[in-house]
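Work Package 4 report. The design task specified in the project plan requires that, given a folded chain encoded as structure tokens, an amino acid be chosen for each position. We show below one input record used in the internal validation round.
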């Protein structure tokens, strides 16, 4: 029986060598310290044994890991290699090594602006120091090696902490797998892992598991009488944001920019990130916050660097659903860019104009004169992105039919280039516009293109769920309610569905239930919408209320909901209202019909 287990189970049996081992464990593992309030005598013993006045702090790169074997579970401290304070360590098997590499691949997607290389982490496994083992039956022997993929989240948290040079909270343990895209998955033997934590690590207060195991973890905690906060997350970046606040991470980045050479490299990193794919980053808010801090606090930025940071901030805010003003760049600066880079930059400016109204759409037109291809067949990739961005702008500025045809053409362009990873947004838009326009033929054309694109590979990231919900919304708008429900209802049951995507599904289902007279089902959907509102996702709740008012012919109420939408999302609401005025359409009905999200 190890010293930690002996201390927790039979403290009177501790011998001199046990006490030395226990002191080393307690110095290495703040998770294993008892609470000063709940166990004052044991806390005093820990202080006396270690010579520490308080619970020792973690170092950057250290995390708690829980392994299981046939009859037991063991606690380990993982971290960068360092001189051993005691000898109980174990190597990792091949599956655990792959889990370490997967976590390292997920890290740049979750912490997109990094100032320390991640490649070094992939090549160097952490050192695992044994803390204690808890067994339900049989001998208390730690495993000779650490096996399996279940350490992914612990690995990810340790890597993030090391790269950020920012210690994790000393009261948390992560029990989930992590894939290279940062998705969290369930682990086996969660009950045995958590029982070992409850018995040997009284300092743990937070348990992070995959969203699919949240209820199981809560049940286990109740059975153990453990007052843990259970966090169920679908992505590694969300788990990290809950533990290391974005403000703290941004502050570390600003500190890193004190060095001029590092600062220059980071400015370029911000710009490259903004110019890349939206799904390269799962949470854009920290990127926007960090860019703003850099603008405010980094000295000696030249005009180009300031523009790059402003551009990165505006793009990140747009991806996060927050409008931000962005002036046009100097034409001389724009013309110095290589053509492909210039075209890609203009595509972002057009998207920015569509989503935020800044820059003004009319001001961008002259910059596009020599950038558009003669045909989709002749377009290079950034030109296809630019055409898709123009369709996005046309859809909210009064040309939805033209936008639909352009998105379908862009889809064919990506299919011709064997680029399924670029197809999810134009496909989702094609479905949405086909439904809004009541165009069955366009819907079927989009469906055929989806079949051909899917044969080339899966949509990356969250792309599949955007397409599914857009297709379901289109089916609902076309009156094909049964098919719509088959797509939309499973999305509400999947914890991996992004909140605003699930909320859009709720809006479509609420309309279906209103049309079919299913009052109970509609009330259940509206309750889910209220839950999304509590987390800040208000747009689809407002749109659902606007739909209801329009359906009932309550024009004054519809006008109030339209104003509420404009207050929440000034653009594209403003674009759509102005388009309705030009076309002589009723504002509220036009906005409800063509609102893009």
């Amino acid at each position: 029986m190890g010293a930690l287990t002996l201390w927790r189970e039979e403290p009177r049996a501790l011998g001199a060598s046990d006490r030395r081992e226990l002191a080393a464990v307690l110095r290495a593992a703040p998770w294993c310290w008892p609470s000063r309030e709940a166990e004052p005598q044991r806390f005093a013993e820990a202080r006396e044994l270690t010579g520490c006045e308080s619970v020792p702090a973690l170092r950057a790169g250290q995390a708690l890991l829980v392994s299981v074997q046939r009859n037991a579970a063991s606690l380990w401290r993982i971290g960068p290699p360092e001189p051993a304070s005691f000898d109980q360590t174990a190597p990792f098997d091949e599956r655990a090594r792959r889990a370490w590499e997967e976590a390292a691949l997920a890290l740049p997607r979750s912490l997109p602006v990094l100032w320390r290389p991640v490649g070094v982490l992939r090549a160097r496994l952490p050192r695992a120091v044994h803390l204690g083992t808890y067994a339900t039956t049989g001998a208390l022997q730690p495993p000779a090696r650490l096996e399996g993929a279940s350490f992914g989240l612990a690995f990810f948290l340790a890597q993030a902490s090391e790269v950020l040079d920012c210690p994790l909270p000393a009261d948390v343990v992560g029990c989930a797998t992590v894939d290279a895209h940062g998705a969290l998955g369930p682990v086996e033997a969660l009950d045995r892992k958590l029982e070992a934590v409850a018995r040997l690590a009284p300092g743990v207060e937070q348990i992070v598991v995959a969203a699919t195991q949240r209820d199981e973890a809560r049940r286990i905690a109740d059975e153990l009488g453990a007052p843990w906060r259970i966090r169920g997350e679908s992505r590694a970046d969300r788990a990290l944001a809950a533990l290391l606040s974005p403000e703290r991470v941004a502050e570390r980045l600003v500190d890193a920019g004190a060095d001029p050479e590092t600062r220059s490299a980071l400015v370029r990193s911000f710009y490259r990130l903004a110019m890349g794919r939206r799904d390269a980053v799962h949470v854009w808010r920290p990127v926007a916050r960090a860019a703003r801090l850099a603008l405010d606090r980094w000295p000696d930025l030249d005009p180009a660097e300031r523009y790059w940071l402003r551009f990165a901030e505006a793009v990140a805010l747009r991806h996060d659903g927050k409008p931000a003003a962005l002036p046009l760049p100097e034409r001389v600066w724009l013309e110095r860019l290589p053509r492909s880079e210039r075209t890609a930059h203009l595509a972002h400016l057009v998207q920015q104009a569509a989503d935020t109204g800044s820059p003004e759409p009319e001001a961008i037109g002259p910059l596009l004169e020599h950038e558009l291809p003669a045909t989709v067949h002749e377009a290079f990739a950034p030109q296809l992105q630019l055409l898709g961005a123009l369709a996005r702008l046309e859809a909210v500025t009064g040309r939805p039919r033209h936008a639909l045809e352009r998105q379908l053409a862009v889809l064919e362009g990506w299919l011709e280039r064997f680029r399924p990873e670029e197809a999810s947004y134009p496909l989702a838009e094609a479905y949405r516009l086909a439904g809004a326009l009541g165009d069955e033929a366009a819907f079927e054309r989009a469906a055929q293109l989806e079949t051909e694109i899917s044969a080339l590979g899966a949509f990356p990231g969250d792309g599949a769920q955007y397409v599914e919900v857009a297709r379901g919304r289109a089916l609902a708008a076309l009156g094909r309610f049964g098919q719509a429900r088959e797509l939309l209802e499973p999305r509400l049951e999947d914890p991996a569905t992004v909140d605003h995507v699930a909320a859009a599904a709720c809006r479509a289902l609420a309309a279906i239930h209103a049309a079919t007279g299913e009052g109970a089902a509609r009330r259940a959907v509206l309750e889910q919408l209220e839950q999304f509102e509590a987390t800040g996702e208000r747009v689809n709740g407002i749109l659902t209320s606007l739909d209801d008012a329009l359906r009932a012919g309550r024009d004054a109420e519809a006008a109030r909901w339209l104003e509420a939408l404009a207050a929440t999302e000034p653009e594209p609401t403003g674009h759509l209202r102005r388009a309705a005025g030009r076309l002589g359409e009723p504002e509220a009905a036009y906005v409800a019909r063509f609102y893009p999200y």
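Residues 60 and 165 are 5 Å apart (CA to CA). Validation will be extended to a larger panel in the next phase.
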